[in-house]
Give the backbone structure.
Amino acid sequence: MRKLRALWMRLRGLLRARRDEGDFADELASHVALHIDDGIRGGLTLEEARRQALIRLGGVEQTRQAYRERRGLPWLESLLQDIRYGFRTLRRSPGFAITAVLTLTLGLGVVTAMFTVINSVLLRPLPYPHPERIAYISSRYEGGLDYHVTRAAQYRFLQERSRVFESFALNDVLPSGVNLSGGGEPEQVKSALVSGDFFKLLGVGPSIGRAFSAEEDRPGGVCAVVLTDKLWRTRYNGDRSILRNPITINGKSCSAVGILPPSFRFHFDADMFMPLQIAAAPRDLGHYYSLLGRLRPEITQQQAREELAALFSQFKASHGDLVDAGEIGFATGRYQDAVLANARPTLWVLFGAACLMLLIACVNVAHLQFSRALVRSSEMALRAALGASRLRLARQLVTESALLTFAGAGFGLLLTYFGVPLLLHLSPSGLPRSTYISVDLDVVAFSVALSTVTLMVFGAAPAMSKGRVNVNVAPRAASHSAPPGKAGRLGRDLLIITEVALSLMLLTGAVLLMRSFVGLEEVDPGFDARNLLTFTMSLPPRYSTTSLTWEFERELLGRLNALPGVKAAASATSLPMGAGPDMPGIVLGQSPPVTINPAYRPVSPDYFKVLGTPLVRGRRFMDSDTTNSAPVAIINASLAHQIFADRNPLGQKIQLGAGLGPEYADPPRVIVGVAGDVRETSLDTPAGITVFIPRAQVPNVLTPLMNRVLPMSWAVRTRVPPAQLFGAIRQAILSVDAQQPAADMRTMEQTMSDVLDRQRFTLILMTIFASLATMMAAVGIYGVISYQIQQRTREVGIRMALGAQRADITLLVLKKAAALLGLGLVFGLAGSWFATRAIKGFLFDVGQHDPITIIGVCVLLAACGIIAALIPAHRAASVDPMRALRSE
């Protein structure tokens, strides 16, 4: 307490310094006057009496300084003095200050904005108690494949045998659509099917009501649902009575048993959760789920892997018929890693690019500091001659650098605050945890830490350089005609070389991504996306058989085809660029039968006509291809080439569902056509093998499962802009089934645009970073050449006086710029050779060391540098020799 009181008294003394300074000066003057009077009375002259009085007091200024040190905090007072002087110095050089602050604002702001995204998405723990103990568990296959899915039988087995996990929870891989009706227009919402212990495992339960009971999670249990806070407020106006009144889901009465808190988030968006109702001993091989487990306290991931390896051996020994072909074990890892696996590479690459841009900004500001050093050499020498130590000079210069840095950091935070919403607008639609992205205290702390590091990078070295002042040489070196020191020239040249090298690395990455993006846009997806309208529907359980489902589809297709402006309509299990099922099968007629695992696409007869996919061989499906007719199939060109090579596949037979158990076994199907390849999942993935079957021939055992898991997809080819038909199509649907809403109505061109979101996001940001970096490099080259021309004014005047032509002077200047550019490009090429490895996974149809890109980037950057050097070169060539010599 005494120390705190003493510190407070010193601070009070410091705050009262100006008032006390005058009082002390008056008191000191009175003491001096008294001593002078004593001396005069002792017989001394006035001058001698004054001298003796000052000697007795120890000097007026020394006494004042001692008083100041006793009165306050000397280091704080000195710091405030440095800050005040720094502000005055920067105010006298507004061009330098504004340029430095703006450069640092861009660099620090961009890095801080990217850190905001990375911190919220990648670094922040999942919003559950002890999230590090939540692990994903999945089946592992030969070749190191891990699809992050497993089956219900393995879930039950692990529940019974595991000792390192305290609980398990199962959920569908993706949410499925369900129809809400009653109390207004029917609405399709997303429903996630989860096991009864799902909320217990996450450690987050309903804020109102309860989670599922054991009875509700049993096969045949009553229909129960837990609503999200968003659906509860939007659909039911936040009415708590919803927990006492039934709601209608897919035409069935259900009970809402709980409302989740507003903060609840899962790795996919869902509006409600319903129990999976898994059997006690399931043998369903055709349905895959996501499996989570919560580790017991103090259990490591390695211990979990060891136990799961042993348990898989036991499972295979006792349930060998429930193990897939090629399945070799269990895989496990942190749940957070599985959720963020797809987003992590993109965000870290962009963060690295932003850091490169910050380095370029630091180099630019460091060059500004070095260029300003000689301008202030006379000032530094004068201050040193007046008694300032090297440490005192360096501290003053570091203080000025700190003012620039933290001003840039402040404006950078402001840029981050307004820039993060723009980043969210540009970000891919599938970016996980995007709702968590916000500027918080972690971001502010990062900005302060980054500013400190930046100060050390660009502020310390120039300050140390300017702190080494020779009081005899510096005033002469401050002359405009004095040549800069060799070390100074080398330092400035290295800064420009570094800028060019870093800019080349960023620009190379941006151009490679640009070429990849253009290549993706030019890819033939295998269908025509123009004037193609798509939507989905979730069929309720009353469409429990294939005949009922096809009857509804056929009637709706007739209504859609009759609409004005519609060319043709089709239905399918899934459309290109959307999630769709696979189906294992075998190709018959070969010994041994060839095993395949193609994409499985039940479609209506006009599917290929509506999508504009050509038929390479054979025929399309017809209305006569029904349940009572011979089973048929159409394969795509990739499957025909892979299995049949040069043989004619028409008339050959395949059997789907092989390996899933007898209940899923499909009768042999005759191949009646070969369709052109369609990129089913993404544009950068080659077309895989696909089998199409008529919608009317889907096995009855699969229909309820497909209707529950996958919304039915529809495609409508229009003669008019698709948006004009949205209302008419909704009315046509309701005319067939008044309780059946449509969802996700959009054009196929919008879907294609969304597919390119990830590449577009990366490209836009990389292009922005590279453009700013190139601009800063050009400004840096301009500054270096201008400064060197200023230092060599006398030399240029002498050369021109001796007969040098303007072209000679211009060439002399450009040679220097070309040398710096050449060295920068060489080092930049070496850096790009390694840096482009980070974006290898983002490239399409272009190599990471593509020579055309590298040559083009080098030419572009060299052209920017030469153009930047032409301005000072022209100025040098325009120097009047007599005026240049006279100025010296």
The chain has four domains: 2-72, 131-340, 480-522+751-888, 541-738. Residues 474-483 have pLDDT under 50 and may be disordered. The chain is about 55% helix and 15% strand.
